[in-house]
Design brief:
Number of domains: 2
Distance between the termini: 59 Å
CATH architecture of the largest domain: 6 Propeller
Number of strands: 34
Helix content: under 10%
CATH topology of the largest domain: Neuraminidase
CATH class of the largest domain: Mainly Beta
Strand content: over 45%
């Protein structure tokens, strides 16, 4: 069985069920479940052969049981199952161990033995490889050229803090700072109505310290800068529906967009303060996909899937990091574990200021997480319930260094698809901004964080 490498992103495209007849159902279900709990990576060898899904624990307590979920599915072009072997290589303190098992939907590699180091902090590095038994080729996460390994971090100091619940429907109103109707022209936002798919509109935005809004308008092929309702300028760019952007510290900006037919590589475009294009830099591999784009100091960093790692936007190959790079060095770790959110800061390989926020509602993705600059964190978490009625909203949480918690809720308004991690941004003056859409148009809404209770 030939295995020519090709990979797809951790989000599952709508054509996947057609690629994976019968045998794929379990794999897709596992991937969706894992994706709902935390960051997942996925990779693919040619359709009808070998598929690999991996989830990193990211941040764990010393002494707790750690299992790395791995799902590898091998199938023939006719859809019948073929056996595959999976090997996990993992290391702490430079000592590498290996474990091998046959692929199965319930496969979990237990690495607890290296998650209880005698010192107060540690990092565990790992790589997963799947190989069809009796076939040619293999598949690895990370793939060659994407860094030595994935990693998760261990700490013995991560207190649990209960987040007060906010009743569903009790949401802050916010203040609209930009409203754009669907339509053409400089003041209109592009819209493509979905038939058997989601509708597409602006996918991401950012706000600078002066309150100016930078918006990606994919259907109109532009990145537009607004002050209030006034269009200051726009830059023409070919953008995919998966586009993210971020202001630079010099007033310029960075724009990351997935490959398009005329641009086969994942790339980041640099804009100067006047909106002019200064550089278009390929990042990762052509099969990578944009997850989120952030800046730290003068640098820009792109979180890519399926690697589930952060890459610096610089010419040439860069080594990935597990956490979001921070200004002045270090990384921010964030991971959803069941109905809890774990946050921590990494300096070198040591975790500091770790905290576990527990929720009474079901927890989805972490739409935003940032250090508050004083040993605490601000996070925006998607929460939901099935009973007594289905409901969902975003809960904004500030946990201070002394573990005091303030919180309020924001409605989930999404008439069109938005990049999941680009719905919220922090602006100047301690203000939170949200990208929302309705049948009449798109708007940016501001929330005063001083209103958290």
């Amino acid at each position: 069985m030939g295995c020519s490498p090709r990979r797809f992103a951790g989000w599952l495209p709508p054509f996947l069920p057609r690629i994976l007849p019968r045998v794929s159902v379990a794999a897709v279900a596992v991937a969706l479940v894992l994706g709902a709990q935390g960051p997942a990576t996925a990779a693919l060898i040619s359709p009808g052969s070998l598929h690999l899904f991996v989830r990193s624990p990211v941040l764990v307590r010393a002494g707790e049981r750690v299992r790395i979920p791995v799902d590898a599915v091998c199938s023939t072009p006719t859809g019948s199952v073929c056996p595959a072997g999976v090997t996990l290589a993992y290391s702490s303190g430079g000592i590498w161990r290996r474990a091998t098992s046959l692929a199965s939907p319930a496969l979990r590699f237990d690495t607890s033995g290296v998650s209880s180091p005698p010192r107060s902090g540690s990092v565990v590095r790992f790589r997963v490889t799947a190989t069809p038994l009796g076939g040619a080729g293999s598949l690895s996460i990370p793939a060659p050229g994407e860094g030595r390994s994935l990693a998760y971090y261990v700490t013995d100091d991560m207190p649990r803090v209960a987040v007060p619940p906010v009743p569903f429907g009790t949401v802050a109103a916010g203040t609209t700072v930009l409203a754009m109707p669907w339509g053409t022209g400089p003041g209109g936002a592009g819209l493509r109505l979905g038939l058997e798919s989601s509708s597409v509109g602006p996918s991401s935005f950012d706000v600078d310290a002066a309150g100016r809004v930078l918006l990606s308008d994919e259907l109109h092929g532009r990145v537009a800068l607004f002050r209030g309702s006034t269009l200051l300028r726009q830059t023409a760019l070919e953008l995919s529906p998966r586009t993210d952007l971020a202001f630079g510290d010099d007033g310029g900006a960075f724009v990351a967009s997935d490959p398009e037919p005329s641009r086969p590589e994942l790339s980041v475009t640099s804009l100067d303060p006047s909106g002019g294009i200064t550089r278009i830099a390929p990042v990762g591999t052509p099969d990578d996909s944009t997850s989120e784009l952030r800046t730290a100091g003068a640098g820009a960093y792109l979180h890519v899937l399926p690697l589930d790692g952060w890459l610096e936007v610089e010419p040439g190959e860069t080594s990935p990091s597990t956490g979001m790079p921070l200004a002045g060095g270090g990384q921010l770790l964030k991971v959803v574990d069941g109905d809890a959110l774990r946050l921590g800061t990494v300096q070198g390989d040591r975790v500091t200021d770790a905290v576990e926020l527990t929720f009474s509602a079901n927890v989805g993705e972490v739409a935003l997480a940032e250090p508050d600059g004083h040993g605490g964190y601000l996070a925006v978490v998607h929460v939901w319930q099935e009973t007594p009625t289905r409901a969902d909203q975003y809960q904004v949480v500030h946990v201070s260094a002394d573990l005091a918690v303030s919180t309020f809720a924001v409605a989930n308004r999404h008439y069109t698809d938005t990049m999941p991690l680009s719905k919220f941004r922090l602006g100047g003056g301690g203000r939170l901004y949200a990208l929302q859409s309705t049948p009449t148009g798109v708007r940016i809404v501001r929330y005063d964080l001083g209103g958290a209770r």
